[in-house]
Amino acid sequence: MAEPGGARPVSVSDVQQLVRRKDEIEAQIKACYELLEGQKGVGMDEPLVDAEGFPRNDIDLYQVRTARHNIICLQNDHKALMKQVEEALHQLHAREKEKQARDEAEALAEAMSQNQSLAQPFAKVNAVTPGSPASVSGLQVDDEIVEFGSVNVNNFQNLQNIATVVQHSEGRPLSVTVIRGGRSVHVGLTPQRWAGKGLLG
């Protein structure tokens, strides 16, 4: 995701680079102040002329002026840099927050779809006769039935519901959803007459 203006997004190493640059500037400012200290403690504001208005001869005027000028420039650079650091950190945090929000939304969506796909079962397969329509469709013992044609946990009252659906669907494929090993599995089941009892087995 690029920042507005097509610039590439700020990375952690960009921020580290800015911080290193800030440390360098601070070290340079400190060195300039030390230089001023070395000139009889002349700070940023002490006069550079004596009582008669002549340039002071007890200090190196050129060095003092240069150091003062450098300090002003460096402080401006420092201020601008601090602003950059702040903006970069804001961008990083905003992106981090966005990513976190996205991750949370995705996790939530996944949990929701898991819940939907793992709807509540209302019956359990306790036997499947070999060679029966149920066996041919791939139904297995211990499959937990979530949907059997139009029957689901919301409208299931008793096994008679399933028997009714089976009778009405003879020879037609029924959509059956089961939970097997913690996963949702769809099975196409066609109730029909076979060698054994009933239409399913």
Automatic annotation (TrEMBL):
CC per GO annotation: cytoplasm; nucleus
Keyword terms: Chaperone, Coiled coil
Keyword Coiled coil: yes
Protein family membership: Belongs to the proteasome subunit p27 family.
Function: Acts as a chaperone during the assembly of the 26S proteasome, specifically of the base subcomplex of the PA700/19S regulatory complex (RC). During the base subcomplex assembly is part of an intermediate PSMD9:PSMC6:PSMC3 module, also known as modulator trimer complex; PSMD9 is released during the further base assembly process.
Subunit annotation: Interacts with PSMC3. Part of a transient complex (modulator) containing PSMD9, PSMC6 and PSMC3 formed during the assembly of the 26S proteasome.
Name the UniProt record assigns to this protein: 26S proteasome non-ATPase regulatory subunit 9
Organism: Xiphorhynchus elegans
Organism lineage: Eukaryota, Metazoa, Chordata, Craniata, Vertebrata
Gene, per the UniProt record: Psmd9
